[in-house]
Amino acid sequence: MADRIAVLYLGRVVEEGPHVVGCVGCALHEGVAELKKLYLDAAMRGRGLGRDLIALVEEIGSERPLVLVVEDIHWAEDDLLELLERVVREARAPAVVLSTSRPGLLERRSSWASGLRNTTTIWLEPLPAQATSRMLDELLGVELSPELRDLVVARAEGNPFFVEEIVAALV
Prior knowledge:
The chain is built from 7 helices and 4 strands; from the N terminus they run E-E-H-H-E-H-E-H-H-H-H. With 171 residues, it is an alpha/beta fold. Strands 2-1-3-4 form a 4-stranded parallel beta sheet, with helices on one face. The two termini are 38 Å apart.
């Protein structure tokens, strides 16, 4: 199935394979300047980055279904959020825009993607303390002292990525 679906990352490429067709920019929190440069270059050519990205999505989508992956959009500036909304609104291709964000995005911009056709928000709640503890056991393979376990569980705030990062720092 992966060879029948194209994946285009707006941000850093997290995996490679025949289904990955490209990468636009780099990680949003690291690459806002690069994305602004792309936007300014497009504007100076008399075109908008939006039109260029829509054309790219439609071109890839004419060959096979496309997943446009955008990570950590809570770091994105409003111009980029508007660009993504425009792609969803205007691109005519079999495409899915998949984005990840912390809840802060909706606190900052409560209307994000509202009113757009076929949009869905999936909330992932933080891991409960017991699940975080189990994850620690699986990652470490050793028993932690109750004090250290409680500290890691509290600091991770139920975020599995933070658990892995804390464990990596401890090991």
